[in-house]
Request: fold
Amino acid sequence: MNAPSKPGSKADRDALRQDMTAAGCTLADIAIELRSRFRMRPREAWRHAHGWTLQETADRITQASTSRPGESVAADASLVGKWEKWPGPSSRRPSLPVLSAMAEAFACGVEDLLDLEDRRALPKSDLRLLINRPPTAGPPSPPTSLVAAQEPTGTDLVRLAADESATWAQWAEASNVGDIALEQLMAETRSLASDYLTSDPVPLFVRTRALRDRVFALLEGHQYPRQSADLYAAAGYLCGLLAWMSSDLGQLRNADTQGRTAWLCAELAGHNELRAWVLSTRSKVAFWDGRHREAINFARHGATYNTTGTVAVLLACQEADAWSELGAQDEALTALAHAQDARAEMTGEDEIGGIFACLPARQENYAAAVQLRVGRPADALRSADSALRLLAVQPVRAYGTEAQIHISQAAAHLAQGEAEGALESLAPVLALPPDHRLEPVTRRLSELCASVGRPYASGTATVGLRQAVEEFCVDSAPRHLALSPGEGSP
Reply:
């Protein structure tokens, strides 16, 4: 059974037009009913009253304008759509010659194509011409040419130019967003970045996407340049957050797309702190995608920006992580030392925080993973133990970071032949609810599981460990997302 059509669908419009035509209603009656019933702008209502497509309307407007010397209009479907939506976002104001050609094509008067909102948005010079123009009940007649009226001379010309400048100044002074609204958007962004450390990722993804869409919609409107820069910064952080979430849910290609959009926003905002965080996010995505050299390049690029918070610490940790995967011990340990230096040189706080912050526990987590890969299990165990102590005194305990610390702790025990200690370290990880089992956690657990078969890791404890890890990875957030229906997934 087919779903019912939405109000305002083509089927609804066609049925209404046919019913009203059969009842003897005029085109004007139909246009008025369409406006009232489906909340259409006047010009869109007149088009649907005729039953024309955007392209059909464009062709008729172009043809109608040829009868007016000096007023020819080259219309297309896209322009008609923008003229219809004016003065809304992403629209274009129809000039008086355009309105005249529209009126002739629709067989109505110019005044029928404008409502109060349109008249308030018209330049004063255009509105004055319309007010002084006799109303028409049908197509505008050729003798009432608007072009002649648009060519004043003498003092009228000077006054008209002043009116036009004043109209532009009113537009330039207006803004669709205020400073308080911008503060609220940034506060909501900080809340999302913080909540991600402790919340289920999919519902938070939905919330983040909704806020990003709000910011995008505002950017399509008009605001002061400084407000545009703030909106681009908010959009960049939100796209960066969506990139991070997408990666944690195993959707690396989509994460890359979000990262590229975040970078564009950072560039448009001219925001160095955001640039660095976006490059950190892109380094993270590249790392989990196996593009380790690219991850290093992103991290090093991010480190070139002058920042005040903890992003420089995280970038150095990420560089060390990628070097260790490549087996470059000296480079990895040097990058860890740079992370220590970056923390000592910090001059301010993080703008957003949450996932866009690198607290000491997170830094020690990276150090533990790096030391494991370069063959220093004892150092890795010390870093993991230190990370857990630091995490215990943090106001917010990130379950993803905590899980990875326990995995490093378990791997260090296993590397030293302590399978029982490894199983004990993994107990908090294996107890995570499925929605908190993110891709980095399942990947690192799988790597740990692969090491169980090595000569130093044998016995009944290792068998139980392997089985527990396999069951854990099967029931995880990325797997649930991959198996969920495509429609409605984030």
Q: What stands out?
A: Residues 225-248 form the longest helix (24 residues). The mean pLDDT is 85.
